[in-house]
Every structure is written in C-alpha cells, then in structure tokens.
Amino acid sequence: MVKQIIFIIVLLITLGFFAYTVKRIYSFFRLTKPFPVSQWGKRINITLKVAIGQTKIFRLPVIGFIHALVFWGFMVITLGSIEMVIDGIAGIERSMSATGWFYDFVMASGDIMAYVIMLSIIIFLIRRLFMTIRRFYGIEMQPKSKIDALIALSIIFLLMISLAGVNLTYVQIHADNYEGVFPVSAALAPILFGENQNLYFLHEVWWWVHILLIFAFANILPYSKHFHVFTSIPNVFLSRLEPLGHLPNMENVTREVKLMLDPETAFAPAPEGDAVPLRFGVKDVEDVTWKNYLDSLACTECGRCTAVCPANITGKKLSPRKIFVDLRARMKEKGPGLLKNISYDDGKSLIGDYISTEELWACTTCNACAQECPININHPTLILDMRRYLVMEESAAPASLNTMFANIENNGAPWQFSPEDRMKWAENL
Amino acid sequence: MDTKINVPLISELSAQGETPEYLFWVGCAGAFDERYQKVTRAFVRLLHHAGVSYAVLGTEETCNGDPARRAGNEMLFQMQALTVIETLKTYDVKKIITCCPHCFNIFKNEYSDLGGHYEVTHHSQFLKMLVDQGKLKADPAIFNNKTIVFHDPCYLGRGNGEYESPRAVIASLKAKTIEMPRNKSKALCCGAGGAQMFKEAEPGIKEVNTERTEEALSTGASIVATACPFCMTMLTDGIKFRDKQEEVKNYDIAELLVMAMGL
User: Fold this and answer.
1) B151, A241 in Cβ contact below 8 A?
2) Which residues in chain A touch residue B65, judged by CB atoms under 8 angstroms apart?
3) Is A218 in CB contact (< 8 Å) with chain B?
4) Cβ-count burial of A101 within 10 angstroms (0-12 exposed, 13-18 middle, 19+ buried)?
5) CB neighbours of A157 closer than 8 A, spacing ≥ 6?
6) What are the residue boundaries of the structural domains of chain B, listed by start?
7) Structurally, what CATH architecture does the domain formed by B10-128 represent?
8) What does the pLDDT look like over B60-95, one tens digit per residue?
9) Distance from CA of A372 to the nearest CA of B (A)
10) What is the value of ipTM here, to two decimals?
11) A313 touching chain B per CB within 8 A
C-alpha cells in the first residue's frame, strides 16, 4: 500500500511536469503559420515505412542497422514499461501476463532487446567519445549538443542495465515458476546468482531504478536534441508528400500577380477573412510553418544532411542541419516574448542574427539533405522561403541574380538574348 | 543528315487547323546556349526519325520562371508562369516534352498549383519510350569500346525519382557503363541548381562542379553523359578545368543516341 501511494505520487509529479513542458512547447506552435495536411492513408503508409520500418536510416547500412535495433527494441520494451506503470498503480505484479502468448512474445523480445540495446549503446558511445565522425562536427555543434548525446546515451544504457536487473532477479526468485519468457536473463541468472534465490530486495531496487529512470528520461528529453524520441514519428507522419522537386506556391503572391495581369479583379471585393500577410517569405520564427518548427524539434542533429550537402562539402558556410538548430534556438529565445505580446521585437531575427545570407545563397536546392534525412525534414523549402523574404521584402539578391531577373523581365530568358533569336538553333538543321 | 528538317511551329500548325500531340519545350538553354543548341538539334532529329507529332512555340516561348522562383523571386516567377499558361491554353497544349529537368519539374509539379495541368515528359523518358518501341535503334558497333558514366540531374533524380530512363537509353547504346560512387539518389549536384547557374559561388575551398567532375573522371570513363543543360555546362567546364577535354567528352544522352544511329 505504501509502495502504491509513493508510486502514484511520483507518477503524478512526472506527468505534471511533462504536461507543463508539452503545453509550453505547444504554445510556440500557435505562433507559426499554417501547413495544410491531407491524404491520411498515404501518411500511415509513409509512417510504417520510414518511421517503423526505418527505411531511410538504412541509407547508412551498418550504423543504421544498429539504430534500427535500438528503435525496435524500444518499441517492445515500452509495452513492458506500460505494464510496470499499471503494476505500480494497482500494487500487483505482472498485470498483463493474462495475455498469454502475446505476453510471452513481448517479454521475450524485450529481454533480448535489452541486451542488444546495451551493446548498441556501447558502440554509439565509443563512436561519440573515441572516434572522429566528421558529421558530428560543425559550427552549429555546440558543446551542449555533445553533452546532450552523452547524457541520453548514458541514461538509455542505465535503463537497459536496470531492466536486465529486474528480469534477472525476477527469474531467479521464481525459478521455474514465473510469468513470461526471458531467454537471455534466464540463461544468465544462475551464472550471476548461483543458488541464491533471496533477491526480493534487489528486485525491488532494480524495479524502482528502472521506473524512475524512465520518468526522468521522459522529462529530460524535451529539453535536449533527443526530443526526437517523441517527435520523429509524428514528424514522419506529417511529412511533405509532394515530390522533392516541388516548391509550395505562395497564394498571396498569386493574388497580387493576378491583380497586376487583370486590373478588372482589382475592383472585386477581397475574399472574406483573407487578411494580407505581414510579409512575404520567412524572416523570423513567426513566419515559419508549424511543420518547419516541428522539423526543428524532431532534428536529432545526426548531420546526415550536412554530410551530403554539395555546398558544405566544398567548404561553403551552408550547413542544412544548422538551419534547423538555429530555428529551434531562435524560437526558444523569441517564443516566450511573442507569447506575451504578439508584436514583440527584440531587435534580432532568424535571418541575420542566426542564419547569414551567405548560407542561404549557397544552396543549390539539390535536395540531397531532404533525401538523406531519416525523419523527412525538408530543408530546401525553408531555405527558399528565406530567399523569398530577402528578394521580395529586402530586394537583397546578389547583383548577378538581379541581372538574371531583369533579363527574364525584358527578354524572357535568364540571359541577355533577344527573344527574336529563339529559333536560331533550328537553322540549317 | 541529308534531308533538311523543318521544325514545326505550333502557331503555323494551328493556322492550318492541326494540333500536334506534343509541345516540345525548348527552354532557354536549349534555344540560346551554344553548346546546348546541339542537344536540341540532336533531340529534334530523333523526334523526326521516330515520326513524332510535335511542334515548338518558337518566338512565343518565354522563360517559365524557374530560375526566378529558385532565386526567391516568386513575383516574377508567377508573372512568367501565368503568361506561359495563357499561351499554352491558346494552343490547347496537353502534353509537354522538354530536355531540361528544371523545366520538366516546374511544369510537372508546380504549374498545377497555378492552374496549368499537363502531362510532362523529360526527354530521357521520351527517348526510353521510343527505344522500347523500337523506333530508335542504336548501332552497337559505335560505342562498344567506350565506357560511359552517367551524372544524375537533381531535378530528374531526387526531385522526381527518375533514375532509370536515362540509364535505359544509355544501355541501348551497348557501351560499357560505370557508376560514380555517389549515384542515383545519392548523386552529388553539379553545382548549378537553385539559380547558382546565374551567380558566383559563395566562398569555399572548392567549386562544386570540380568536386563532381573529379568523381566522374575517377571512374576512368571516356564519356560523361548528362541529361540537363546546366549539368552539361558545369561538367564540361569541370573537364576543361582538369584539362581532360582531349580524353573525356561530355554528351547529352540525345546526342549519344544520334551518334549511335548515324543520324
């Protein structure tokens, strides 16, 4: 009974703090622009493939496979964690064991995966600590990013140690008379404990360590780049479904252009509830879509985008990962002020103070970054939206591009050729 | 080629009450770039050889606005786009073929947002279809001792998932083929996309086209095949920059087919 009360109090504190964090992050989404979502069937399909099937993580096959093991392991182990919470509230043990073969499957796979994840995390830690992986470095990779990674990996490692502790002591205490199947723990327990079956206290300790680590982990994640544990599956579900080559249309520009081409429409009344937006393109966080912001929360800074970026490879300042690291940081900085006052201005902006125009103009829109992102973040559309701001609001395109614009306007081609010469190629064919 | 080819203008056909099946969108590079004009001419030879019903807009063609859009000038893009849509409406154009992946992408994916709906085919896809139909047959003797490496244009490959058609056209030449380490969805950009073609590159340690050309040269292929006017400019420049223009040639897949057919 005492255990139940303590558990429920701890659980409520955990959920309360988590709810506070989620509400805070959710409020930032209200500051962003719309991003229409449809085609739900397709979205379920893409989630099964890219998120559950981990298809894009396999583009780097070896390390991708290890990540997939950790991900799939987490899926089955989470089912076991749900049981632990029910057990804790109800004050019983193995509350889901009545599900029979399903229970055996969940416990057996969870037991195996606990050890597999342990080994995987050791590999990840070795890579982070002792190897030089180029994509883990870059100007946007502040010490916090490295510390975040090490903390998250260490917690996951301890989670698995404690889960193994729970399983090992459980099978040892109950010898041949326990619920579920634990292939690895059942084999290891006699080696570790011999004949000793009096492990009730140790079992209790591991149980509490495991559940408290889960609660702590869930509340630390939203404050680190490992928030992707929660956000990446929704991010994949909400992916852009258009071909990568497609750039979203700017409806507000279409209205203006139609007005210019057909003065008649100037006298038509403006559509209801269709206020003229304050600005074209993206200058700061309040101009991005909520999907852009979700992308920034889902990014775990793996750097696969930057590693394939032609601009970055050839030494330009652009790093696609930095765009989203910057967006996330800028929202953290400006978001609270905007929530208090929608016209809040701290004299800074995403363009200029975080992302330089030099970075934005270096993009070739080749879509290698978006192709590589394991969770379907779309970098080029956001970069383009910032270019749109620079060109249409600031007239701040590089001079050579202004020449190109003038050529298109005057002779209908990006170069200075006469439209009369358009058929020259066909002479003497 | 002995027989003179007259490229049909859509306005002339229209005046005679005829409607061609396809509009061949030549594009700015296809019309004005001295090197790429040869590709346009090669493609037209293939169209005539296969007896395709097509026409061009001629002087009525104008930029479809892609470089402006990629450079952030949405206003200019949409003015061009709405103008082009009007022109295409006049001639009741339903199917478009183009050699330029950028034109292909914008007609296929983006014009529909402004009310222009077309069936759009890139020349690599169109040539594959004609090869499959047996209308274009390469002489296997022409390229059988050559090695060809293909560079994927971003807006054909990653942008629209088309990796196989250009390779199928090359396969019909019966040459040896080789792939670069970064190919298909992992292909490296030539450096010209996103309006880079029309500006100086930002400061860095290397030009993107040099990086890509070196990768192509490292395969030892004697022909670098491309399927995009901008890729062609970038890789031809890269080959010259590395001083390999004697040993290594850069051709469009349409030119290779013309050579292999002796047209």
Assistant:
1) no
2) 408
3) no
4) exposed
5) A118, A121, A122, A125
6) 10-128, 138-261
7) 3-Layer(aba) Sandwich (3.40)
8) 999 999 999 999 999 999 999 999 999 999 999 999
9) 8
10) 0.96
11) yes
